[in-house]
């Protein structure tokens, strides 16, 4: 919308670069172009503002396929007013000279024209197409048919309108039909999912079986090795017992031999000691046999005195001494004593 400013009974208009302004003054064209800026009097001016930029028109309408199924078509048409003068002559683009707003609804008229034309060509295509084909290839066929139909529509060039592009967003059936159509695919997907689940479970079971077999084989191998270990321990124990018995036998034999040698040595020593004692005793007896009785009596008294308790002092009367000497076999009275 143009920007209009009031100054002392005059009006100043300033338009956007994408707006084409036509200014008629007293029936004559005073200004004509894009992005204009000028002064005018509102009582004598007739203004038109035609947008020349690309505009997007979204549309949605219902259609029926060859198998009598209702569908909803969503499309977008991009158009541009290429001839502003022709458009201003065919449609009411006039603006209020005081406010700059459109007095009519020209863009709505253009939208109605494009929508009805596109809908007509869409209905022609879908009426000959079954629902399944419309859902699969309908977007491309509808887009091509609508683009060709709008390009061949004589009213659009006559109004100064050029169609830039046509896009068909979607073709959707009713909710119940869409759910019914999705059911086979969902069932197939579910079957594939179930099959994948079963395969995964089968693989898991197979892996568990392999793990169980590996564990069983490990247990069997462990038991076999334990058996070998027990056998080896028994063999080692028997060998150790045999070695110990052999060592004990050797030790016993050595001890017996040592005792025999010791006994022999002791016997030999005893024989030698006995012989020496016998010889000493014989010599002692020979010596005593050759000695006179008085000497033997003295030796006996000496030996007796060695075994008697110690006597500090002894007093003998002459009578006792004489009798003692007589018993010792010395009638002389023991002159030596």
From TrEMBL:
Disordered: annotated span: 231-252
Basic and acidic residues compositional bias, start-end: 237-252
Domain Band: 33-197
Domain of life from the UniProt record: Bacteria
Name listed for the protein in its UniProt record: SPFH domain-containing protein
Biological classification of the source: Bacteria, Bacillati, Actinomycetota, Actinomycetes, Kitasatosporales
């Amino acid at each position: 919308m143009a920007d209009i400013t009031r100054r002392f009974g005059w009006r100043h208009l300033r338009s956007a670069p994408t707006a084409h302004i036509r200014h008629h003054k007293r029936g004559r064209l005073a200004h004509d172009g894009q992005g204009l800026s000028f002064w005018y009097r509102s009582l004598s001016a007739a203004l038109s503002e035609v947008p020349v930029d690309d505009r997007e028109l979204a549309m949605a309408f219902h259609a029926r396929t060859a198998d009598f199924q209702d569908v909803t078509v969503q499309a977008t048409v991009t158009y541009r007013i290429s001839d502003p003068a022709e458009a201003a002559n065919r449609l009411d683009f006039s603006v209020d000279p005081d406010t700059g707003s459109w007095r009519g609804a020209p863009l709505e008229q253009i939208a109605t024209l494009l929508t009805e034309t596109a809908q007509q060509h869409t209905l022609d295509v879908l009426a000959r197409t079954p629902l399944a084909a419309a859902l699969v290839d309908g977007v491309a066929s509808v887009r091509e048919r609508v683009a060709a139909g709008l390009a061949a529509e004589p009213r659009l060039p006559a109004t100064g309108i050029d169609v830039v592009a046509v896009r068909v967003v979607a073709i959707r059936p009713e909710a119940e039909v869409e759910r019914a159509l999705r059911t086979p695919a969902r069932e197939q997907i579910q079957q594939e999912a179930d099959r994948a689940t079963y395969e995964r479970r089968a693989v898991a079971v197979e892996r568990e079986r392999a793990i169980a077999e590996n564990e069983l084989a490990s247990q069997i191998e462990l038991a076999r090795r334990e058996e070998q270990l027990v056998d080896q321990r028994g063999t080692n124990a028997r060998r150790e017992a045999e070695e110990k018995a052999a060592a004990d036998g050797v030790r016993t034999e050595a001890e017996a031999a040592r005792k025999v040698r010791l006994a022999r040595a002791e016997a030999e020593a005893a024989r030698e000691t006995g012989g020496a004692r016998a010889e000493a005793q014989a010599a002692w007896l020979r010596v005593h046999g050759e000695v006179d009785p008085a000497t033997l009596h003295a030796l006996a008294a000496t030996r007796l005195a060695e075994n008697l308790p110690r006597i500090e002092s002894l007093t003998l009367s002459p009578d006792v001494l004489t009798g003692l000497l007589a018993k010792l076999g010395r009638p002389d009275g023991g002159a030596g004593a």
